Amino acid sequence: MKKLLYLFVFILANSLFGQDYKSSVSTYLNANKSELGIESQDYDDLVIDRHSYSKSMDVENVYAIQRHQGIEIFNSVSSFAIRNGQVLNAGFSFEKNISEKVNTTSPSINAATAINKAAESLGLSTTSNIDLIETLSDNKFIFSNGGISLENIPVKLVYQTMDDSSLRLAWDLSIYLLDASHYYSVRIDAVNGTLIDTIDWVVSCAVEKGMFSNHTHIKDNNRLFSQTKNMALSGGAQYRVFAMPIESPNHGVDTLEADPSGEGEGSPFGWHDTDGVPGAEHTITRGNNVWSKDDINANNGTDGISADGGAELIFDFPYIFDAPPVEMIEASTVNLFYWNNLMHDIYYQYGFDEASGNFQENNYGNGGNGSDSVNADAQDGGGTNNANFATPPDGSNPRMQMFLWDGAVTSGPLLTINDGPLTGDYDGIPAAFGGEIVDLTEDLVLVEDDVNGTEDTNDACDPITNGGDLTGKIAVIRRGECEFGFKSLAAQNEGAVAVIMVNNVDGDAITMGGGAVGDQVTIPLFMVNNIDGEAIIEELLTGTINGTINGVTVGPQIDGDLDNAIIAHEYGHGISNRLTGGANNTSCLNNAEQMGEGWSDYVGLMLTMEPGDQGSDIRGIGTYATGQPTDAQGIREAPYSTDFAVNNYTYADSNNNVISTTRNWICLGYYALGYDLVIN
Residue 378's domain spans which residues? Predict the structure, then answer.
């Protein structure tokens, strides 16, 4: 009886607080509706979705959802900073004149049909195994996973904003693909069953293979030197890791670190607790904030290896760099566990707590929804050269997938010209697709294509006209407007044994992606810069060239679990996705211009800053995973640095939609770092 009374009081108190916030928001909107261009009917059915207190700003962050006749308008969430009942700041994103824009209030297809329509549209097998598990309201349900999703499938009615600003009644649902590669949030038209909107909650940060060389490790000549730091005071768990702020094995040495969980409020019962009572529930790399385990077999299951520290929680496992990464899987899961917990505890101090939608199994009575610690998959076998983070709404487990990366490329110059005025060695960049680059000597032949197609008759974007000349030869193709995979496949189909791509813009060669048909290309290919390449083309127009492609040696794979900047970056996606639109709406950051990549770069750079670092230093993201030196560019088009001789991108680059999205990320990362950029 006492527990029931407490529960009633708790619910009543939260309801009253929600009503107070709604009143404050409504008062603000009434006073500003002319300026905002809205009518009372646009917000008279709003509902307070979430609220959390910000200690740093001394305000309550309140998220309000716009509705029409009790049906939410998807992604129409406005945020309000409220203090003492007054709205101090508003991030307004409500739709206007909603009653004139809706098409209907009654669906023509049911929720189960919508799931099958979504599965069909996503290329999945439709299923009759979808069972209704729970009815949450008249238009809100939870269905079983139906064998097509890693999680049960929630479905609810919403209005989807269309390109013409109309509002279509739709079923909103999410399907987490069985290989965890995508976590689709989709809207299915509730009238005709068509797919009208898709958002992927999995954010990937890939780089292409074979780009870099000179991968080295800093040797630890005194492995035991730092082991005693704080251990006498801790009396708890110990972890052999590349500790903050060390970015990777290239930046410092591993040490045995005392459990720092007692240094803040984020993990009051330690990293291995789940029940809120002193004493660890797990002796493996699992606890309230994260479960770190291997997913080498890519089944996203619970059977992966987690390092076991025993009853004393001593996680002291060696890092082995002269063997395949699987030989140090325990050490990798420890480092991944340590950094995920650091991210949790650090950002807890800055407001990413339970009420704000952080990642915890047990919220210890501090608000928010529990049962959503991070599933951190080490050495995931589902891909390479990548990492990702899936962020569902509060109460559902996010997943961090850390992959292995291709080993460092070691070779001499990729191309040697054996005769004529261009005799000598030339550098190039291997493609991210195609066959292995091995020693090969043959004549070079310039590709010619249809003169009635694109202006460039040497870019293989149109039907090749000299196919007979390519048989058994090395094709030379100028970079053009069509996909690298398309033109390379065309040369391969004409009998070419390799491709040299010539950059058609100033600057260095780039790593080529395969596009839609790149997976069909089996011959080796690489790109040379425009100066070398145009000289080769000019010579081929008047004579012949015999060349040798020099084989490439790829070193052992690199474990992304030891690149701490990438771990922090990925976790940063979870933070920004849960905070931007409120913990229940993780779909705000879904367009090409979203700032999440830049923010996450900032998180990774900030947590790996060391004493004495300067703004002009060269800081790349993912230099370890990509096999680069510590002062290289990383996975972006340029490294972070305030030195314009190193990186001259400005905000102006982010305004040009011709410029790649990567440049937008760099500019937004600068913004997060507080760098003073020139707009020109």
Answer: 231-404+558-585
Cα gap 610→213, rounded to integer Å: 25
Q: For 422-436, how does the pLDDT look when each residue is reduced to its tens digit (9 = 90+)? A: 999 999 988 878 999
User: Which residues of the chain fall short of a pLDDT of 70?
Assistant: 1-19, 205-235, 262-263, 409-411, 591-593, 654-680
Which residues partner with 91 through β-bridges? 79
Exposure string over 336-361, b if 16+ CB within 10 A, otherwise e: bbbbbbbbbbbbbeebbbbbbbbbbb
Residue 619 main-chain phi, psi, to 5 deg: -125, 115
**pLDDT tens readout for residues 552-566:** 877 789 999 999 999
Strand order in the sheet with 440-446: 424-426, 415-417, 545-549, 440-446, 474-478, 498-502, 525-528, 429-430
CATH code, domain with 358: 3.10.170.10
Strands (E), 128-182: 132-137, 140-143, 153-161, 167-176
Tell me: do 390 and 263 sit in the same domain: yes
**Distance (Å) of CA 579 to CA 354, 398, 574:** 12, 14, 9
Q: Which strand (E) or helix (H) includes residue 79?
A: strand 71-83
Q: How far apart are CA 150 and CA 148, in angstroms?
A: 7
Exposure string over 196-211, b if 16+ CB within 10 A, otherwise e: bbebbbbbbbebbbbb
Which residues are within 8 A (CB) of 341 and not within 5 positions of it... i.e. 6 or more apart? 261, 267, 271, 287, 289, 290
pTM of the model: 0.75
Angle among Cα 547, 549, 552 to the nearest 5 degrees reads 165
User: Do 393 and 265 share a structural domain?
Assistant: yes
DSSP designation for 34: H
pLDDT on residue 587:
87
Instruction: Give the span between the Cα atoms of 173 and 183, in whole angstroms.
Output: 11
Contact 428, 549 (CB under 8 A): no
Question: Do the Cβ atoms of 64 and 47 come closer than 8 Å?
Answer: yes
CA dihedral 22, 27, 31, 34 (to 10 degrees): 30
Task: Provide the 10 A C-beta neighbour count for residue 435.
Answer: 14
Q: Which residues pair with 443 in a beta bridge?
A: 546
278 and 396 co-located in one domain? yes
Q: Do 130 and 274 lie in a common domain?
A: no
Total number of domains in the chain: 4
Residue 75 parent element (H or E): strand 71-83
Is residue 446 within 8 Å of residue 458, measured between CB atoms?
yes
Element (H, E) at 553: strand 553-554
